[in-house]
Amino acid sequence: MYGRPSTKVSVYALQMSRLWDREIPINKMACSVDAPSLKDLPKVAVDLKSQLEGFNQSCLRDVDTNEKIVLPSAEDVATEKTQKSLFDGIEKFDATRLKHTETQEKNPLPDKDVVAAEKQHQNLLDGVEHFDKTQMKHTETEEKNPLPPIEAIEAEKEKNKFLNGIENFDPTKLKHTETCEKNPLPTKDVIEQEKTA
């Protein structure tokens, strides 16, 4: 910022300082844009103005300007070509090459069994909805609750006693007994008789 000013800025400032020194009205300059009034122009300090006027351009070095143009990658080029070919294909599409076709609307109707089942179901629903209760006959309801015979009742009582005896069994009422294992072995005479037989 405090170093040597760039060429563009210094040339512009130099031209502006010359215009101020000559006191040429800005509105008489030929430019395509409306020039601002003298009041609107930025004020340049006196010491900066003197530095700009006394600037020696021979101190500047000649520099070759290198324009760097970034070329797109191969992928970008391929993508652009693909998009362009698609757009060209759409724009130049010949609709006369299309074949005329007739649209066939297919509405499969249900078969006879499905129609009959649906009618039967609908008739049942209609019969329930529009049922006429006045055509019904009045009847007396007889509740019959036949009791089982006496033998069946006695058999059931015996079964219940037996089950209660098993469920409510008290093992403390059992008597302690000793088990005596008896495994009589055959005598020698019996063994010899079996061998000879």
In short:
GO terms for molecular function: actin monomer binding. The chain is mostly helical and 197 residues long.
Could you characterize the architecture of this molecule?
This protein has 197 residues and is mainly alpha-helical. It has a domain at 7-54. The chain has helices at 7-22, 46-53, 74-91, 112-129, 150-167, 188-196. The model is unreliable at 1-9 and 26-31 (pLDDT under 50).
Give the helix/strand layout.
Layout: H1 7-22, H2 46-53, H3 74-91, H4 112-129, H5 150-167, H6 188-196
Largest sheet: none
- The value of Rg in angstroms is 61 Å
How far the N terminus sits from the C terminus, by CA atoms, comes to 137 Å
What is the general shape? elongated
Query: What class would the helix/strand composition place it in?
Result: mainly alpha
The amount of beta strand, in percent, is under 5%
Arithmetic mean pLDDT: 81
Could you state the order of secondary-structure elements as H and E? HHHHHH
**In which range does the helix fraction lie?**
40-55%
SS summary, helix count: 6
Spans where pLDDT lies below 50 across 5 or more residues: 1-9, 26-31
Q: Got a strand count?
A: 0
